[in-house]
Amino acid sequence: RGRSSEGARGGRRATMGVAASAAAIAEAAGPADAHSGLRVGYRVLQVQRGSPGEAAGLVSFFDFLIAANGTRLDEESDLFGRMVAAAVAAGDALTLDVYNSKAAAMRTVQLRPAPGESWGGTGFLGLFIRFDTYVGAHGNVLAVSEVEAGSPAAAAGLRAGEDWLLGGRDGAFDSPAALGEWLRARLGRVGVPLYVYNRERDGVREVLLDLSVATDGLGAVVTHGKLHELPNTHTRGHTEYAVTAPAAPYPPPPPAAA
Fold first, then answer.
1. What is the DSSP letter of 195?
2. What is the rounded distance in angstroms from the CA atom of residue 122 to the CA atom of residue 242?
3. Which end of the chain is more exposed for a tag (fewer CB within 10 A), N or C?
4. Under 8 Å between Cβ of 61 and 194
């Protein structure tokens, strides 16, 4: 129902979906991290099944693309897109530095872009990505503590005590209030993408919410704060492909002309 419990408070508000200034990021994050102080990159959201992104082992929502072929991706521009297109033309792979916010660890992966028709999907990478900061990313999650029968949360297969809500395609949820605002802006719609982490499977899945008949939000109680942060921080998780999908697309098409 969009109800929430704040739990123990902690952490700072993260900048979502925009490039923050270097000074602002440094002030928010404190000491420099293991990648020369770089704290922004392209957050991996959707990873299509069978895609080059899946082959590279990229993890939905937790992985950030930090550098490509040694070039830092520290601002939102067409640079990465041009690098991908050049790699496709040359038949080369990209060497990516990837930061995982769940495990707070860097790794290097090889990603070989390819036209969608060659692997059965769309795009060269099979990824939906968004420029973001990973400052505070570990704490920007909402634990699901109750799910009401017959609610959009129940229809989407959310599980109390096992699932954490991570965010939508426009960024993370840094508070229950942010979730409420996000839901209110989408009431009446169907097929609304929501990213969810499950601790039992240590996986991230994209579910599609049906909010077409919802009058009071999600129909779940969520908690937030230090006592409700992600478990299993020694692992980076993995991308799952169990999607609960209402029949109609999101966003809904405009009405046909009379």
1. E
2. 19
3. C
4. no
CA 72 remoteness from chain centre: 21
| Rounded Cα–Cα distance for residues 42 and 76 (Å) | 8
Query: For residue range 116-172, what is the model confidence (pLDDT) as tens digits?
Result: 899 988 899 999 999 998 887 777 899 999 999 989 999 999 999 999 999 998 888
For residue 165, list its beta bridge partners.
142, 196
pTM: 0.77
Query: How do 94-100 and 63-68 pair as beta strands?
Result: antiparallel
Q: What is the bridge-based pairing of β-strands 40-47 and 71-72?
A: unpaired
DSSP label at residue 6:
-
Separation CA 190–CA 252 (nearest Å): 7
φ, ψ of residue 54 in degrees (nearest 5): -65, -40
Contact call for residues 160 and 223 (beta carbons, < 8 A): no
